[in-house]
C-alpha cells in the first residue's frame, strides 16, 4: 500500500514539475512591442534604446541599423534626413553607428517607446527637453560620453562616432536608468496576430514608395515573394555595415507634420504633437490615415519651454503620449508583425510623395 502511495506521489510530483516547466516555457517568450513578433522575454521586456544614426552620404553604411525594430526618418537642416532606430535586440551588433546629434522632435518620438535616447550632441532647441528628469538619455557630450561612445579611425570626424552593446549597458548603469519598461506601458502599435496577414482594404497599389526626400532620394521597393519593402537611397541599396544585408520592412508609415523654422540657420521646428494626415503602407497597398496623440490634453502639466527668435514652444506632459494612427473610418490601423519604417514628412512636401504600382518607375519622376 505504501509503495502505491509513493508511486502516486512521485507521479503527482512529476506532473507538477512538468506543469511548472510548461509555465516557465510560456513566460520565456512574449510579443515584442516593436515588431509584434514572438521574442524571448529577456529581449521583449527589456527597455529599448533609441539611437540617432547619421545619414549623409559620407556616413553610410550605418552599422547596427538592421537590429532596429522601428526606424524614424526625419528632415534636419538643409533637407538632409537623420535616422533614429528603436532597438531591443542588439547584443550581437559589435558596432553601432555612426552616432549623430539630437533634434528636439526626435526626443518626442523616442519617448513614445519608453526608450533610452542615445545621441552625440544636440541642437540648442533640444536642450530643455533633454534636461527634463523624465528624459532618460545617453549624451556623448556629457560626463559619460567616453563610457558610451568611441571614435573610429576609419572615418573622418564627425562621422566616426560609434558604440556597442556593452558600452551602452555601461552608460545605463552609470546613469542609474531602469532597464524595464514603465509599469503602465503597453506598447506603441496594434499588430495582427502572428501567422495572420492584414492588407488594407480599398488601398491603392503600392509597389514603390518614394517619400520625396530631396537629399538622399529614398525609396522602398515591394517584394511580393516575402511581402517586404526593400530600402534604397543615394541610388543604391541601403545596407547594414555589420551584415551587408539590404534593409527591409513590413510596414511603412508616412506621417505628415506641420513645421516652421526655429531660426535663420535652418533648424526645423517640426510639430510631433498636434496631429495630421499620412499614409500606411503594407502588403503592397497604401491607405490614407490620420494621426493623433492618445488621450491628449494640451493643458497637461507644463514641463518646459523652448524659446528662439521666431518660435515659442511649451512642452507639456501629454506631448509624450503615444501616437495612434487611424484609417478613414476612425479605426486604429493594424500593422503586420515585423519591422516598421516611419517617414516624417513636412506637410508642405506631401505632394512630393510618389506611390506607384509600377515596379520599374524611376526616381527621376520626382523633381529633386
Automatic annotation (TrEMBL):
It comes from the Bacteria. Residues 1-24 form the signal peptide. Pfam families: DUF3048, DUF3048_C. SUPFAM superfamilies: YerB-like. The keyword DNA-binding does not apply. Residues 34-177, 216-300 form the DUF3048 domain. The keyword Signal applies. Keywords: Signal. This is DUF3048 domain-containing protein.
